[in-house]
């Protein structure tokens, strides 16, 4: 009876996913049709206005004289850019998933420990021990071989107690913290700065110096949480570093935008445009603006991740994303796949991490609903990864 029950449960779950996929495909087709109709209407309107102008050249000349030159030049650009961004984002979702699949390294028996990723997490203090754990364990479950956590002395024992699989260094608040961490940098493939870091001035100072040392190693650096607070105060710490990836939520994005653009984020603004402006101001760093749909940009193009998640927004999901992103960024930059050469590797990695986090959220919520926590999402990494990138 139990076997039959489990079979029925598996069949029901599979049926649910199939129905969801069909619904998502139908929604994509509807959006494409709607976009095509909008473009057609614009073309028709353009033809109508062209015909009117041809029949009444004096009115056209008067209108051009009355309209300021700057407005005449910028308005069409805004319309064209808005539609081109939307189109590129929709095409990107279909095109970029194969790129993510192409960077996933095969599991071969001849590999040695550490070859698929040694990830460092800078963060963890007395108040915040969960965030660095979530980031580090997520990196392992995505496929990294080793996860190092560089935290304060008070946090180390607590983080070690969460999992014996993490390598925990209680050095972040020591007098020679930077020197202690620098010794490990040659062994790391990427760095995640910010989960559980806090805003203590000494810890922020140490994190800043570690970032500077890591840039000279030319490894991907993912900055999240209080690491973004540091960047908002001192943007030069990561500005212009092409392997830097920032993962702000909207409040963190607002602080960064105001610091770099010297203006508040426009109310009801086009976040695609604002995110591109921030990326360009930061030297074309990859920005991952987390929200109801994740917006990824390197200042040149925008990709929207619309992988379905859920309405559950428990703390720690961003740490799962940053840990996964640390691994995927290493894979993207070391991949030999020709496909990734046409797209910024950071964008490919970011799309993969966003998709994975959302899929984990969706699967955990399907089982637990409102009771879903990040620990539940982490348990879904294996099946979510397989469903997205290995099927």
UniProtKB/TrEMBL annotation:
GO molecular function, one term: ATP-dependent NAD(P)H-hydrate dehydratase activity
PROSITE patterns named among the record's database cross-references: YJEF_C_3 (PS51383)
Database matches in InterPro entries: CARKD, Ribokinase-like
Residues reported to bind (6S)-NADPHX: 196, 249-255, 319
E.C. code: 4.2.1.93
GO BP, one annotated term: nicotinamide nucleotide metabolic process
Pfam families in alphabetical order: Carb_kinase
Cofactor(s) demanded: Mg(2+)
Keyword presence, Phosphoprotein: yes
Reactions that this protein is recorded to catalyse: (6S)-NADHX + ATP = ADP + phosphate + NADH + H(+); (6S)-NADPHX + ATP = ADP + phosphate + NADPH + H(+)
Residues in YjeF C-terminal domain copies: 96-388
PANTHER family: ATP-DEPENDENT (S)-NAD(P)H-HYDRATE DEHYDRATASE, ATP-DEPENDENT (S)-NAD(P)H-HYDRATE DEHYDRATASE FAMILY MEMBER
Family in the record: Belongs to the NnrD/CARKD family.
Function: Catalyzes the dehydration of the S-form of NAD(P)HX at the expense of ATP, which is converted to ADP. Together with NAD(P)HX epimerase, which catalyzes the epimerization of the S- and R-forms, the enzyme allows the repair of both epimers of NAD(P)HX, a damaged form of NAD(P)H that is a result of enzymatic or heat-dependent hydration.
Name of the molecule in the record: ATP-dependent (S)-NAD(P)H-hydrate dehydratase
């Amino acid at each position: 009876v139990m076997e039959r029950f489990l079979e029925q449960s598996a069949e029901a779950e599979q049926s649910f996913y199939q129905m969801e996929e069909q619904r998502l495909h139908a929604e994509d087709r509807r959006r494409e049709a709607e976009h095509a109709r909008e473009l057609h209407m614009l073309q028709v309107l353009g033809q109508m206005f062209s015909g009117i102008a041809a029949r009444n050249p004096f009115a056209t000349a008067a209108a051009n004289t009355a309209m300021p030159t700057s407005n005449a030049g910028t308005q069409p650009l805004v319309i064209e850019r808005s539609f081109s961004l939307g189109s590129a984002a929709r095409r990107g979702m279909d095109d970029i998933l194969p790129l993510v699949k192409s960077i996933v390294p095969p599991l071969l028996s001849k590999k040695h420990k550490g070859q698929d990723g040694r990830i460092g997490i800078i963060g963890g203090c007395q108040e915040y021990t969960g965030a660095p754990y979530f980031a580090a364990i997520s990196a392992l479950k995505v496929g990294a071989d080793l996860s190092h956590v560089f935290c304060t002395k008070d946090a180390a024992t607590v983080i070690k107690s969460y999992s014996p699989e993490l390598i925990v260094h209680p050095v972040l608040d020591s007098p020679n913290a930077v020197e202690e961490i620098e010794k490990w940098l040659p062994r790391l493939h990427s760095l995640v700065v910010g989960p559980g870091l806090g805003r203590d001035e000494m810890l922020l100072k140490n994190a800043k110096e570690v970032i500077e040392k890591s840039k000279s190693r030319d490894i991907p650096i993912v900055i999240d949480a209080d690491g973004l607070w540091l960047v908002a105060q001192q943007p030069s710490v990561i500005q212009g570093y092409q392997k830097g990836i920032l993962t702000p939520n909207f409040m963190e994005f607002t602080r960064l935008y105001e610091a770099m653009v010297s203006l508040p984020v426009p109310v009801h603004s086009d976040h695609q445009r604002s995110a591109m402006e921030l990326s360009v101001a930061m030297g074309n760093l990859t920005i991952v603006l987390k929200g109801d749909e994740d917006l990824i940009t390197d200042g040149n193009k925008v990709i929207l991740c619309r992988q379905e998640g859920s309405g559950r927004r428990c703390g720690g999901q961003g740490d799962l994303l940053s840990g996964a992103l640390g691994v995927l960024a290493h894979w993207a930059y070391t991949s030999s796949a020709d496909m990734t050469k046409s797209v910024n590797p950071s964008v490919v990695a970011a799309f993969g991490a966003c998709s994975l986090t959302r899929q984990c959220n969706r699967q955990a919520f399907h089982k637990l609903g409102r009771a879903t926590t990040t620990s539940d999402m982490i348990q879904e990494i294996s099946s979510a990864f397989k469903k997205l990138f290995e099927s």
